[in-house]
Amino acid sequence: MHAAAVRPTGVERTFDPGGIIVTKTDLQGRLTYANDVFLRVSALREDEAIGKPHNLIRHPDMPRAVFGLLWERIVAGQEIFAYVVNLAADGAHYWVLAHVTPSLSPAGTVVGYHSNRRVPTRAALDHVQPLYRALVAAERQQGAARDAVVAGRAALDTHLSTAGQDYDEMVWALAGSQGW
């Protein structure tokens, strides 16, 4: 299964608000661990997930610019919280509030990445979904993937500047409704 081969069905899936999706990847983003919540929600078996690129669950309506920001942060050794829509193997989609961090060796070098994901509030999604649609629309006007990331990032930066926030401030303002 690969996300490019799966068509979105429009069916939204969620999971227990007390549950946490956990995955770990190597430095190239290949899954090295996936908990049972991830496997159930993504409709994948462990043998279909482990060793595969984490982007196998990438939804086509997820802005490349947000993933660009995510990779920029974690490669620099920083954490990030981000709203993400994923595509399950059966075509359903599911939203998460992801917390992605670098995994460090005892010597302090980055050896992979760790992500915990929770169910976001509907209020947060009501804000994020139109923003992400606008970012994806800007990205789809470009021919090359790199140009799409640049266009999406420019649209994101414009939105955030207008709101007087950076991405982290936006996420935390929306996550505040979750009691974080």
TrEMBL record:
Residues 25-112 form the PAS fold domain. It holds the Pfam family PAS. This is PAS domain S-box-containing protein. GO terms for biological process: regulation of DNA-templated transcription. NCBIfam families: sensory_box.
